[in-house]
Amino acid sequence: MIEKDFIPSAYNQTITEGKVSYKSPSNIALVKYWGKKENQLPQNPSISFTLDACATTTTVSFKKLDKLSDNYSFDLWFEGKVKEDFKPKIVTFFSRVAVYLPFLKAYHFTIETSNSFPHSSGIASSASGMSALALCMVALEKQLNPEMNDDYFVQKASFLARLGSGSACRSIEGDIVQWGKHEKTKGSSDLFGIKYPYVVHDNFKRFHDTILLVDKGQKQVSSTVGHNLMHNHPYATQRFEQAHDNLDKLIAVFKSGDLKEFIAIVESEALTLHAMMMTSMPYFILMKPNTLEIINKIWEFREKSGSNVCFTLDAGANVHVLYPENEKDIVFQFIKEELIAYCENQQYICDRIGFGAKQLKMNA
Ligand code: DP6
């Protein structure tokens, strides 16, 4: 598939009004996307576990306008309230996807959205939010063109979600999604995420992710600023190569179920992401003292117990604690007894691998 394959030919249906709704999850990267080119194309391939509990639910009501709008015509409601300050993000998204969704100016949209996790949790909502919105838009397009097949539907939703936020393209399906051209992964593309196409050992089925909310504040570095730090970064080339190598290694790990090697790759990726931020210009430290306390506790516990618990980080201070299903009791007890004390207001979210976005039925 290339970009122009996502530009539709004329629609064969006319729809004057309706409503579509999707619940779409967040995801946690194992190999990180950090650095992008023009048009939201990644500098390196990445792979993630789709999550289950952390999700955005978006409902789009649409009504045909008498004439095309000059700009995009929409209202935005977030958790039951009109939210003017989210509108510029949607306008940017609409202008990036307009050529692929030629109906955008023909309708007025009411977009109602809400998150399952608290807004001020430091959890990025761009992946779940942009994927939910992209899915609603493709669902509307499918009403205009009912012949659209399921594979195309999913690919287009991922393609559009990527234009909203890179990592969002990994939130449409589960349970493991790869995005970005990688030589050894058949079907991989910079344009959209694909379901990981090879064998996955039972050790990785239903993995847990307990998210420790170390710092619930606003992100210190926006993703746009963050990704830009990789332009002219002294270690960029090596970093992008490393991501390819780690994906090569993960193919073998997913097949064999080697949890020790999995831990080594995942923790190294998390620390490399933060190392990139510490060695860019300007430089940032996004970990907090409690992030390091938690990491050290996890290492101590692993040493002592032989458990396969590990951590990963996104571009902030919160810690994602990852562990296999058959260790859930001992690790959760360890988390409660030793880690929760390092969280802001002792807050954490119990999540696990999920299976992708779901359409919600609308009452007519
Ligand atoms: C550290 O997808 O939020 O979470 O494309 O600018 O919206 P934009 O960036 P975004 O970046 C996510 C970065 C990351 C790593 C990852 O999810 O792969």
Please describe what this structure looks like.
GO terms for molecular function: ATP binding; carboxy-lyase activity. The chain is an alpha+beta fold and 364 residues long. It folds into 2 domains: 3-198, 2-Layer Sandwich (Ribosomal Protein S5, domain 2); 207-352, Alpha-Beta Plaits (2-Layer Sandwich), CATH 3.30.70.890. It has 8 helices and 14 strands. The strands form 3 sheets. Strands 1, 4, 5, 6, 7, 8, 9 and 14 form an 8-stranded mixed β-sheet that branches. Strands 11-12-10-13 form a 4-stranded antiparallel β-sheet. Strands 2-3 form a two-stranded antiparallel sheet. β11 and β12 form a beta hairpin. α2 (126-144) crosses α3 and α5 packs antiparallel against α6 (259-278). The two termini are 35 Å apart. The mean pLDDT is 96. The site of ligand DP6 has 17 residues, from α4. Ligand DP6 is lined by residues 29, 32-34, 40, 46, 124, 126, 165-167, 223-224, 227, 273, 314-315.
Alpha-carbon distance between the termini?
A: 35 Å
What kind of oligomer do you see?
A: single chain
Which class of secondary structure composition applies to the elements? alpha+beta
User: Which fold name corresponds to the CATH topology of the largest domain?
Assistant: Ribosomal Protein S5, domain 2
CATH class of the largest domain: Alpha Beta
Biggest beta sheet summary: 8 strands, mixed
CATH architectural type of the largest domain: 2-Layer Sandwich
Number of individual domains: 2
- Poorly predicted parts: none
Question: What general form does the structure show?
Answer: globular
How large is the count of helical segments?
A: 8
Protein name: Diphosphomevalonate decarboxylase
InterPro entries: GHMP_kinase_C_sf (IPR036554), Mev_decarb (IPR005935), MVD-like_N (IPR053859), Mvd1_C (IPR041431), Ribosomal_Su5_D2-typ_SF (IPR020568), Ribsml_uS5_D2-typ_fold_subgr (IPR014721)
Keywords: ATP-binding, Lipid biosynthesis, Lipid metabolism, Lyase, Nucleotide-binding
GO molecular function: ATP binding; carboxy-lyase activity
